[in-house]
Amino acid sequence: MNGYDFSFAGAQFTARPTGALWWPAQNTLIVADLHLGKSARMARRGGGLLPPFEAQDTLHRLAQDVGATGAAQTILLGDTFDDDDAAGDVTAGPHWQRLQDMTQLVSISGNHDPAHGAPDVTLAGIALRHQAALHGAPDISGHFHPKFKLAGRGYAAFLVGRDHLILPAFGTYTGGLDANSPVLTGLVGPGLAILTGRVARAVPYGAVRPAARGNA
To answer: Is the dihedral of CA 56, 59, 65, 71 positive or negative?
Structure first.
């Protein structure tokens, strides 16, 4: 499936080229920062007008990942919706309903959608939350939308360290934070950056620790 297999916190994962994380032992797909309804929210608040099909596109791509993996559950790591109004619009639509028919959706709340989901969940000793915590590692999170520059091009990327695994933003209209920003290098530390795109490929992120290595 053109994914990249690696280990984190004693578990085996596959970083999919789409930005979704597959956890085979738990039959679980994990995605972060869909920001559904961003174009509508910007229009409501007088911002720039964007094509209004981002929620449809994001949910279509997520449904493809669910179908490809057969995930029994899909965990959404917060900022699933760009605001509360967007949540109402999107969840009433057919694309959200189709996704619910395919997989059990487990929502974690984010800073954009604090009322939609639990603060975190724990699975096999790993905390899943919106934003990585300085204490209580290991955890899997989103929030930062990491981007890694390679040969002058920016790629949405997974960042894999000893204690923290940060996912790229999955949503169609999402920006990103440079993976070499101090907030990310200080949090994740040395490990791997796994770039998304046509295939998922890993490059060293700082000094590589043996525990963070994976295999294609």
So the answer is: negative
